[in-house]
Amino acid sequence: MKLWNAPARALPVTVRPLGGETVLSYARRLSQANGLPPTTVMRALGQLSCGSGHHLLDRDARLNEQALDRLEAYSGISRERLARALPALRWKPAGRPLPADRPALHVHQPSPRTRHACRQCRLLASGSSGPPVMVHPGASPMACQRHKRWLGTPSETAQYDLSAARDILTATRRRTRLLARSPDRKWADSIFQTAWSITQNWTECDPRRMPVFSQRWRDRAAALGITTGKWPPRVVTFPEAVTLTAILTDLNWRRYVALEWDTRPFYQHVADSIGEQSYPRFFLRNDPILRWIEGHRARFRDIRLRSWAPPLPEIRHFK
Prior knowledge:
This protein is mainly alpha-helical. About 45% of the residues lie in helices and about 5% in strands. α6 packs antiparallel against α7, α7 packs across α9 and α10 crosses α12.
């Protein structure tokens, strides 16, 4: 008999889910807290879509109603509380419908890939010998405000202590607000990734051309104990990336750049936002802001050439 055919009952040890955690990460922690093999609860929730095994534990799963009932029973936690912590339980399901005649899970690799939660949070949740906690980057902040730890992107393994770099903590809160206010969160996040690439390119600039920014990211690196090479870690330009995101998602500025021929006010606004006297427009052969401007203007070329003939598109069309 399969584990998911047996009646589901509350396990002796209850485990608290962490915000942004994957269903399978939580199932593994629930198993190991109760002295069971890591995949036991996962296999007991329902029929798996692609076999079973430890290789699935860094993935996530969507559950049908019967499997969700079983998770609620095993954990002893209401589905409402589980859904607040586990994004897969509240996100709109994608892909093929799950069977309705039996408990079932569809295991998948999220995009972007999952990352490790704050190590201090993991210690509190699972103890020093507990399993890792995997979270969704899109459903958890880039820094743990409670423990002042940098979490970063899925590809980053270093969790820097941000106690001496409070502006990074402030920037993570600002980024969260920017994404929350945007009517199109996915679009706003893509703009943030573009802005972050631009600020990384700025680190190649001669420090004499961007003295404020250059000194700032080097001070952050020193505060975090980072020895910088040609390509400094992305954490040191994160605050400026958030500042630039606010500009690049501003529809008024996007309309201005798309339609106006004089882009000097836009360059000056970017410089002012990062504390520079002026923007060094030609400090590189391929100025990253110029590349963004050219790409953005190319999309609206026809509208710009006939801008003398009203009506112009509504401002929302300049995304």
